[in-house]
């Protein structure tokens, strides 16, 4: 009898693990891969309802495997999105970009091209270069959840690139080189700032001086190494601008190679949840801008992985000072 129960239990664990790893139906949620490198669709769940611990465990396992989870058909209010997002950690209240949040729900960033207060919306061009959310702060977002409320007839797509694969497919020599490297992330490199209200941009920059993060980060939950870069990086610590530029260009181009990318074509009520610790993403302007694209986003707070760039500058040693003098003379 004991053996029978043991066999049933082992079979159950086998099926359970297979469901999480390959996609499959456990009668709870169904996970279907959408791309080779990134992405899975999750169905069989209504996110308006609270989720239990087992479902949360399944979602986390699917998230760590597929990095981007698409939940179609989730017509959530702002409050419901906030409530669901909180299952995965404390939420960022957009204090780093206070001008762009929903005044009634600080956790919601409104990404829209709807006319707002009689003016073109300030967030209509959000995310137009490859980046990872809030990397220009010392506590970058761990994850983000983006809900499509209104969309153009075609386009307005978003792409994500797998930064584990980007790291793992570098040569051993390059991996060794980047392992100890640190990079400067700068909010002034957010694309399209020149088209925003200068006063609001000044506030954004004042609140977000450049910060330094490791170029390779170990994901705290999967233990895997991922590149942490993007197009909001201005250079590497200890390297001149001229030296940094080609290395950065190579690494960013490599990381966003088509084979590492998933491209999502939105439908209204798609909720997409992604892991900023092992992905970069970009919002494409591939649509008729006279049509509305209206999205709401929450960000899950991450751990501190950076420090202020100016702290780095304060402890200059003699050799660095001499190099700086040489660079300007
Ligand atoms: C973002 O960069 O978080 C926005 C992505 C999008 O609007 O598609």
Topology:
Layout: H1 2-22, E1 30-33, E2 40-43, H2 53-66, E3 68-71, H3 78-85, E4 101-102, E5 105-112, E6 143-150, E7 158-162, H4 163-168, H5 172-179, E8 182-185, H6 198-207, E9 211-214, E10 216-218, E11 225-227, E12 233-236, H7 241-255, E13 261-264, E14 271-275, E15 279-283, E16 294-300, E17 307-308, H8 309-314, H9 318-328
The structure holds succinic acid.
Compact summary:
It contains nine helices and 17 strands.
Written description of the protein model:
With 329 residues, the chain is of the alpha+beta class. Helices cover 30% and strands 23% of the residues. The protein starts with a helix and ends with a helix. The chain is globular. Strands 1-2-3-14-6-16-5-4 form an eight-stranded mixed β-sheet. The chain has helices at 2-22, 53-66, 78-85, 163-168, 172-179, 198-207, 241-255, 309-314, 318-328; strands at residues 30-33, 40-43, 68-71, 101-102, 105-112, 143-150, 158-162, 182-185, 211-214, 216-218, 225-227, 233-236, 261-264, 271-275, 279-283, 294-300, 307-308. It has one domain (2-328): 4-Layer Sandwich (Double-stranded beta-helix), CATH 3.60.130. The structure holds succinic acid. Succinic acid is lined by residues 111, 126-127, 133, 144, 146, 158, 281, 283, 295, 297.
Question: Tell me, what is the CATH class?
Answer: Alpha Beta
- The H/E string reads HEEHEHEEEEHHEHEEEEHEEEEEHH
Strand residue percentage: 15-25%
Any idea of the CATH topology?
Double-stranded beta-helix
Bulk shape: globular
Biggest pleated-sheet summary: 8 strands, mixed
Number of domains: 1
Would you tell me the overall average pLDDT? 89
Count of separate DSSP helical elements: 9
Strands, count: 17
Ends: how far apart? 85 Å
In CATH terms, the superfamily is: Clavaminate synthase-like
């Amino acid at each position: 009898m004991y053996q029978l129960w043991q066999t049933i239990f082992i079979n159950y664990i086998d099926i359970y693990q297979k469901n999480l790893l390959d996609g499959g139906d456990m009668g709870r949620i169904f996970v279907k891969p959408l791309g080779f490198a990134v992405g899975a669709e999750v169905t069989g769940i209504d996110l308006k309802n609270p989720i239990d611990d087992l479902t949360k465990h399944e979602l986390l396992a699917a998230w760590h495997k597929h990095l981007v989870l698409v939940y179609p058909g989730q017509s959530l209010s702002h409050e419901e999105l906030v409530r669901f997002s909180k299952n995965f950690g404390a939420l960022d209240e957009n204090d780093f970009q206070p001008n762009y949040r929903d005044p009634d729900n600080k956790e919601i960033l409104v990404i829209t091209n709807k006319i707002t207060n009689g003016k073109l919306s300030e967030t209509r061009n959000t995310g137009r270069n490859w980046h990872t959310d809030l990397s220009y702060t010392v506590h970058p977002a761990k994850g983000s959840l983006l809900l499509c409320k209104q969309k153009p007839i075609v386009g307005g797509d978003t792409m994500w690139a797998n930064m584990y694969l980007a790291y793992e497919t570098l040569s051993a020599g390059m991996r060794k080189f980047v392992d100890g490297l640190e990079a400067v992330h700068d909010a002034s490199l957010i694309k399209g700032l020149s088209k925003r209200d200068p006063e609001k941009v000044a506030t954004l920059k004042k609140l977000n001086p450049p910060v330094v993060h490791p170029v390779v980060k170990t994901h705290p939950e999967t233990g895997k190494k991922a590149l942490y870069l993007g197009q909001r990086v201005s250079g590497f610590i200890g390297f001149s601008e001229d030296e940094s530029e080609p290395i950065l260009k190579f690494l960013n181009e490599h990381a966003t190679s088509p084979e590492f990318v998933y491209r999502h074509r939105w439908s209204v009520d798609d909720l997409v949840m992604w892991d900023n610790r092992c992905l970069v993403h970009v919002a494409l302007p591939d649509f008729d801008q006279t049509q509305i694209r209206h999205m709401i986003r929450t960000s899950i707070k991450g751990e501190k992985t950076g420090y202020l760039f100016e702290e780095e500058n304060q402890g200059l040693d003699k050799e660095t000072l001499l190099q700086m003098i040489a660079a300007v003379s």
